[in-house]
Amino acid sequence: MVTSPSHDEARRILDSAPFIRDLGLRLESLGEGTCTTVLDLEERHLQQDGFVHAGVQATIADHTAGTAGATLIPAGRAVLSIEFKINLLRPAHGERLVCRATVLRAGRSVSVVESEVLAVEAGRERLVSKATVTLAVVPRPGKDARRPPEETP
After folding, report:
1. Angle, CA 70 vertex, CA 68 and CA 72 arms, to 5°
2. What is the CATH number of the domain that holds 121?
3. Are strands 34-40 and 110-121 parallel, antiparallel or unpaired?
4. Any alpha helices (H) in the chain, and if so which ranges?
5. Mean pLDDT value of segment 28-43
6. Considering the chain, what is the average pLDDT of its residues?
7. Total domains in the fold of the chain
């Protein structure tokens, strides 16, 4: 894997997001404008009929896209999703999901990334959803930016 300030930011995106850690998403590979993540499926990821919940697929498509986008931004910048569209192509089931994201256009203020989510069952990958994610490239907030506003009595 390549190491650079932008790759450090990409790793920070995956390592420091509490919801993503709780979901169980992990980095498989990172390149210039690309990212692959993996999610080992558990019962908590399923909807009422036993398929992977659409929200799980949307979350990993969005977050993997953001991580791919972060590999192409300058130091001191961050990415924030401003829009995404996902097509759920077929019911997802299997042992794990793999998400591969590729930057289609890296801009100074807006980038566009495509994510493919594949379900893996018995060693066979099957495309289950595809997303297009638009990212804003913004100044990276300081540590205090994540704190909720204090309530005034």
Report:
1. 90
2. 3.10.129.10
3. unpaired
4. 5-15, 18-23, 54-70
5. 97
6. 91
7. 1
